[in-house]
Write a structure and sequence with these properties.
alpha/beta, Glutaredoxin, six-stranded mixed beta sheet, 6 helices
């Protein structure tokens, strides 16, 4: 009985209208790479993170607050999870739901990371958290945890509104 109830709960979270979990897309780098060539006047903040990464989880509230504050502007927050694909249902979806994450969440497949990491930024060691800011086609990259003040400074420097 408990497993059936758990199944119904998980099913309703995944497929209910407006469900937070519906925003998680599993993508290959080829699909994700299209974001890297954006040249419009929207500020894209792309944060690479994982649920198992303590510094990533610590800085996440700053990103979510920025999403709330700037969502009516030309601002787009994309959280790119580097969690393992086989943990989408057991770890990532519950984390997103529990933390009421409403911005776009992508789960990036991990194959050939040695090829795609330098395409994001040639100096990126591959460690997370890492954040890519794209504004008017210009890329600004930060490897490591961001403080609230640092994130705010990046946004204020790069925003177009």
């Amino acid at each position: 009985m408990v497993s059936f109830v758990s199944f119904l709960l998980a099913f309703s979270l995944l497929f209910s209208p407006g469900s937070v979990g519906k925003s998680i897309k599993v993508v290959d780098f080829k699909d994700f790479e299209k974001l890297l060539s954006k040249k419009n006047d929207t500020l894209y903040v792309i944060n690479f993170w994982a649920t198992w990464c303590s510094p990533c989880v610590e800085e996440l509230p700053y990103f979510l607050a920025a999403h709330q504050k700037y969502s009516k502007n030309k601002f787009r927050l994309i959280l790119v999870s580097l969690d393992f694909e086989n943990q989408l249902n057991s770890r990532l979806l519950p984390f997103v739901h529990k933390n009421n994450i409403s911005c776009e969440v992508l789960l990036l497949r991990q194959d050939r990371s040695h090829v795609w990491i330098p395409k994001v930024n040639k100096n990126w060691s591959g460690s997370i958290p890492a954040t890519l800011f794209i504004s008017n086609g210009k890329h600004t990259f930060h490897e490591g945890q961001l403080s609230k003040e640092q994130l705010t400074n990046y946004i204020n420097k790069l925003k177009t509104w």
